[in-house]
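Work Package 4 report. The design task specified in the project plan requires that, given a folded chain encoded as structure tokens, an amino acid be chosen for each position. We show below one input record used in the internal validation round.
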């Protein structure tokens, strides 16, 4: 995991690993959970802070590892959660006076504040956080530039302004705005924000004898280096008890084929459309631009849902588990309005914790495993969805010249495009929206840097054959399951 919080991530994943070991052994009970807290933080002294606080943080991380909300937070369906015990070391004030303050007689900062939040302190001016409205006028007025904006990393990372703070300075997530992209999780230097983890449910399904099938995102190729192919991942998953694995790039082929039909029809009538693959983008549409969601969004399901429906048709009673770099996929799998979707989702970090709990590692495999076209495999990068859709249109003999595409990668780009679409000022015909910069390969739970992943991906993707999308789909019973969002 490549973030600015390697120590936090390692500690969090170690807790997941130990929770998984207990689950595999059938010993995940309250007594063992309490013992795990003391094994993780034995004492008598803490390396970072108060030992009792650190143990409380571990306790809450165990709750998240069991797909539960922290005990001091309301029970909600939101997969992104805040651990209060870890969220009390950030500066409460968004604006702060630095040592550069000259304590000047004119005090323009105090004069500019309309809320009485600034007053003289012992050595410099002082901002009362309870009165400050974060308007920024004091910073503009200071002739020395002594007042700085200390925006919290989590708030800065949120693309939709869903993060606020309560009267105690604790981070609060506005679930009506949150698109569950997970960008805030790794931006927090204290690891105070995390997501619910469904590893225990997956382990219980495997232990109960159910047919549990993994579905690996197209972004998987390259995540673990250029020697870990899809076949290597498939082998490791089978060693842990999964019945099989299918690459979701095949779902990319399915989505591109059906979305291209929608695009072709929309283009004839002059209707503008958006893609339907990125769940954070769909959440942004539904919550911030509901009119655009109803009028302009493709009704074709995401590749994850497509593969899950295919597997549930071909393997009745199976349990489907998506593996990828995305937090928002967890929210998509929980969305009751999309029947037949993945039962569970786990990130790459969670996959590695699960593997360590069974002492399984990746091994190089000679055989070439491929079910998707190269177009489906490239769904993971920005522009990949749109390119696959155009490929399908060309394979049908349809004209694509003149079609104008807008490829958005990143929350701000997506918001800007949707605002233009809402106002009727968008010049392009179709919008590909991905909330993560660079596409899925830049997801919040990526395993390496984007550059490392891209280099390794290109080496692995060069080994793929050149099959066409529509020809590839003839091997699968597409008429037996729905590709429409509502399942009809």
């Amino acid at each position: 995991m490549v973030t600015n919080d390697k120590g936090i991530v390692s500690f969090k994943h170690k807790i997941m690993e130990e929770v998984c070991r207990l689950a595999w052994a059938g010993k995940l009970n309250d007594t063992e959970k309490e013992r795990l807290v003391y094994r993780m933080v034995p004492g008598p002294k803490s390396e970072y802070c108060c030992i009792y606080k650190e143990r409380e943080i571990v306790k809450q991380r165990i709750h998240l590892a069991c797909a539960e909300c922290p005990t001091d937070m309301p029970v909600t369906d939101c997969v992104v959660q805040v651990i209060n015990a870890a969220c009390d070391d950030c500066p409460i004030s968004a604006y702060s006076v630095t040592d550069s303050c000259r304590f000047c007689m004119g005090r323009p900062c105090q004069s500019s504040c309309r809320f009485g939040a600034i007053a003289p302190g012992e050595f410099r001016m002082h901002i009362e956080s309870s009165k400050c409205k974060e308007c920024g006028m004091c910073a503009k007025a200071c002739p020395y530039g002594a007042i700085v904006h200390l925006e919290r990393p989590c708030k800065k990372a949120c693309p939709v302004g869903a993060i606020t703070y309560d009267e105690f300075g604790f981070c609060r997530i506005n679930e009506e705005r949150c698109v569950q992209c997970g960008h805030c999780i790794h931006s927090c230097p204290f690891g105070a924000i995390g997501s619910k983890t469904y590893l225990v449910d997956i382990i219980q399904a495997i232990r109960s004898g159910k047919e549990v099938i993994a579905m690996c995102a197209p972004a998987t190729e390259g995540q673990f280096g250029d020697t870990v192919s899809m076949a290597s991942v498939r082998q490791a998953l089978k060693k842990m008890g999964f019945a099989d694995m299918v690459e979701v790039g095949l779902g990319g082929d399915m989505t591109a084929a059906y979305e291209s039909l929608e695009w072709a029809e929309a283009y004839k009538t002059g209707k503008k459309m958006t893609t339907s693959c990125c769940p954070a983008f769909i959440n942004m549409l539904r919550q911030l631009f509901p009119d655009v969601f109803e009028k302009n969004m493709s009704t074709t399901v995401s590749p994850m849902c497509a593969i899950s429906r295919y597997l549930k048709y071909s393997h009745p009673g199976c349990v489907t588990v998506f593996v990828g770099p995305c937090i928002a996929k967890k929210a998509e799998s929980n969305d009751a309005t999309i029947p037949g979707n993945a039962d569970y989702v786990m990130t790459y970090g969670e996959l590695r914790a699960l593997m360590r709990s069974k002492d399984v590692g990746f091994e190089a495999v000679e055989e070439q495993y491929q079910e998707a076209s190269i177009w489906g495999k490239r769904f993971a990068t920005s522009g990949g969805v749109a390119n696959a859709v155009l490929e399908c249109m060309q394979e049908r003999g349809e004209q694509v010249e003149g079609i104008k595409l807008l490829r958005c990668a990143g929350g701000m780009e997506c918001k800007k495009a949707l605002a233009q679409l809402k106002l009727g000022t968008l010049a392009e015909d179709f919008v590909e929206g991905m909330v993560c910069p660079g596409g899925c390969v830049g997801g919040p739970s990526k395993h390496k840097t984007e550059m490392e992943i891209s280099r390794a991906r290109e080496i692995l993707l060069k080994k793929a054959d050149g099959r066409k999308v529509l020809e590839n789909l003839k091997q699968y019973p597409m008429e037996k399951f729905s590709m429409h969002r509502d399942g009809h």
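Residues 292 and 422 are 6 Å apart (CA to CA). Validation will be extended to a larger panel in the next phase.
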